[in-house]
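Researcher: Let's try something more involved. This one mixes different molecule types, so please make sure each is placed in the same coordinate frame as the others.
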Amino acid sequence: MTAAPQIISETTVRARCAALLVPSEVFPESRRVETITLDLGGIPGTRHHGFTRKAGPREPWYARGMEMRSGRALTIVSVEELPMIAAGMNVPAIEPEWIGANVVLAGIPRLSWLPAGTRLIFADATVVVEAQNAPCHISGKSVARHADPEGKVAGLALEFPKKAQGLRGLVASVERPGIIHTGDNVTAHLPPQRIYAGA
Amino acid sequence: MTAAPQIISETTVRARCAALLVPSEVFPESRRVETITLDLGGIPGTRHHGFTRKAGPREPWYARGMEMRSGRALTIVSVEELPMIAAGMNVPAIEPEWIGANVVLAGIPRLSWLPAGTRLIFADATVVVEAQNAPCHISGKSVARHADPEGKVAGLALEFPKKAQGLRGLVASVERPGIIHTGDNVTAHLPPQRIYAGA
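Model: All components are placed in one shared frame. Result:
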């Protein structure tokens, strides 16, 4: 018999929706909007909308192009973590627009560490955390283009995936469709947490 | 600044698919089959198939009948935990058929505690753990009907939701569609585990 795992009960964290963004014409960038109307697939009409997507370089264990469950409808970053990435890269700031974020939250320390299954409850919609987002070189190139438009810093694009590790926010799916508003109060409802030690 | 959370790296646990079941004519029961062909919505043609479902008594915070993300396409129980529920209820056994299980795994101690985001990798398909399943009184009535067909034990149905707490297995979604087979080796791939202590 395995020892009972450590358990932390359900908890909540209060936050605020600091900004909302939808994809812009320039991949992977996004642009600010006041509201987003979410359906169950995410943001209608956008690249990451839908319950499924094609497997890509993030899933080298699957055949490229295989239709798979998505879990990446929305990307969420935080007011607190973006400056930590910027500090690590030695640039003045990193804007959510540059890395294609859809939601910017304020008030959740270490947003990226919220466990899968956390519900982010907006006034009229709810999204579910699927996983921590893994920083990629495409966002790195976009950061370098904006933070260093004259290309003075060698290798800046490659710094992003390294320095953003554990700080790049979350990917999420929609549980309850509805309109989300810039300025909304948001409650993060964490599931019971346990370290699985049965292995 | 919040202290860095406790982290346990990605780990794997080896298991075996001991049985597969599909819904029977009698809700909530299921019946054994040799193989199941999963599509991205779960088991085609069954009650829990699909990416969305109607909100019910499990979600009292939503309007009854609201279309919401499902996360309950499959229910998974374990060879190790079902006897623990039976012992708690003082009945000889609990069969996966009685409580509508779709997959019975062997070899994962405390299956119910696998964290959300765990991938269960079969030879030709992969499913993602969404959450621990919460035992309900409908399954309790089915258990009582089978374990005590003459109705000799008062209140047996209500014992199930109590004694199955933390032992009733998992609900899951399909990530990679394909055929799963009774007897398949299964690898549980756990995400990095952390206790979120930022609150």
